[in-house]
Amino acid sequence: MALTAKQKIFADEYLIDLNATRAYKVAYPKVKKDETAKSAASRMLTNVNVASYVEKRMKDREKRTEITQDMVLKELAKIGFADVTDFVTIENKGTYKAVQVKATEEMPGDKLGAIAGIKEGANGIEIKLNDKGKALELIGRHLGMFKEKVDVNIQTSEKLDDIMSQMGGEGLEE
């Protein structure tokens, strides 16, 4: 079954930045509340047609850009698992200790992607590393290590309880 015009707008917008709430509000401009858009967008992403369209477009983009999830994860791993001692050594200089930057060929090549920048500052050469915590968080999310808790509250009504009891059910308890 094909996508409706609104579903296609939603899916195409979602593919821009993977922000389902924003995409839903573009596809359905009358929806103003973020909470409403968020829950509706979540349902929209579980729609079989929408999900397969998004998956196909992402695979097409992966082929077109030649950027794979594995490549991204490897780069994040460089950042997440790098250590400052991969790039510097601490040397005794008699009465004090000094930080010595390693020569590039002494640095592990698989971790050079962790370096955000190198510059000469007032205290010598400074090495700035990319955000290790953020990289580890993104890796953890990809691996499904962090699950968001969903609170589902059901409000009962006397009518619903009556219908359930007529059907042979026990109704909903508060």
UniProtKB/TrEMBL annotation:
Keyword Transmembrane helix listed: no
Keywords: Viral genome packaging, Viral release from host cell
Signal sequence region: none
Tagged with keyword S-adenosyl-L-methionine: no
Gene3D superfamilies linked to this entry: Terminase, small subunit, N-terminal DNA-binding domain, HTH motif (1.10.10.1400)
Highest taxon of source: Bacteria
Protein's name according to its UniProt entry: Terminase small subunit
